[in-house]
Every structure is written in C-alpha cells, then in structure tokens.
Amino acid sequence: MFYRDDRLALFIDGSNLYSAARSLGFDIDYKKLLTEVASRGKLVRAFYYTALMENEEYSPIRPLVDWLDYNGYSLITKPAKEYTDTAGRRKVKGNMDIELAVDAMEIAPHIDHLVIFSGDGDFRCLVEALQRKGKRVSVVSTIRSQPPMIADELRRQVDNFIEMDDLSDVIGRAHRPRPDGEMDDPHGMPD
Fold first, then answer.
1. Architecture of domain 7-80+93-171
2. For 47-71, how does the pLDDT look when each residue is reduced to its tens digit (9 = 90+)?
3. N or C end of the chain, less CB within 10 A?
C-alpha cells in the first residue's frame, strides 16, 4: 500500500500510541519510527500530539517531548485539564483529536498518503473525509491487546491497517541493562 513516490504525512496520537505499545510490552524508538516511515515514501511532515500538565514541576513526558521537538517531529501540545469525577476521583483530560483532524485536513492537498498511529474510533469520520479527497490512509494500532486498541469502525474504514505488534522489531526500543543495573530510559528516547 506504500509507493516510493508517495508524499507521506505521519500523525501520532501520543497517548494512544503509548498505551498500545505498553499493552504489547514494548517501548517505541521514535528515531527508528521516523526512519521507517521515511523509507516508505517522501515524508513531508511528522506530527506528534500530546497534552501536558502545566502545573507540575516535572512531567515524565517532558524529556520525550523536548527530544521529539529537536529531532524531526512537529509537536502539537496543549494543557491537560484536571477535574474530579462524580465518584470523587482525580482525572486528567487532554484529548487532541480536533487538533490532529484539522492538521490532517490542512495538509491533505500536499500529500498522497496519511499514516495515523491511533486506534481511536473518533478518527473514522476524518479518514472517510480524507478518502473522499482521494487520499490513502493507513492506521497503525493493535488488535492483539486485551481489549483491542483499535476501534472496529476505524479498522474497517482505513485503506490499510498495520498491526503494531508486527512492527515491534522495526520501531521497538531494545532494553539494555546499564552498568548500574537499571534499564534504559522507558520513554523511548534514543541515546
């Protein structure tokens, strides 16, 4: 489904990708991921979407976000919202679906094929709109987790579903013990 002359755009739903990879038991190497997608055609842009907690002194995702920003990804962030649900539990909300959809529609005239790393069923309508514009859409997620991370309606709509578990050797991060016995950074940043 990939053609060498395709102009590609990569869209990563950060929290969805993290959850899918974690459910499959591997960490993403974002440098390998970018290289892999670029090898499939002419990569025009790689977007990474995530919400950030602004009031925390240190966010565990901050080093990853900074690394991505300096290494070929266009970072789209917004403040996460904190609230208390009806049961009194503290929750954090940071949905980036609208931002991803708007960027996909804006870049569509300049590309041939969109690759979306997300299994969120809310993107089915976006995929359908892009297809009406003559664009091919591939989605990378997983059906091998329990429960599956990809919504059935999204999987049925896309031109190409790519099982993330099949990419673990290609985009996964190898864990090497460090001299102090600790493992590499779990956030998937290359050394």
1. 3-Layer(aba) Sandwich (3.40)
2. 999 988 777 666 778 889 999 999 9
3. C
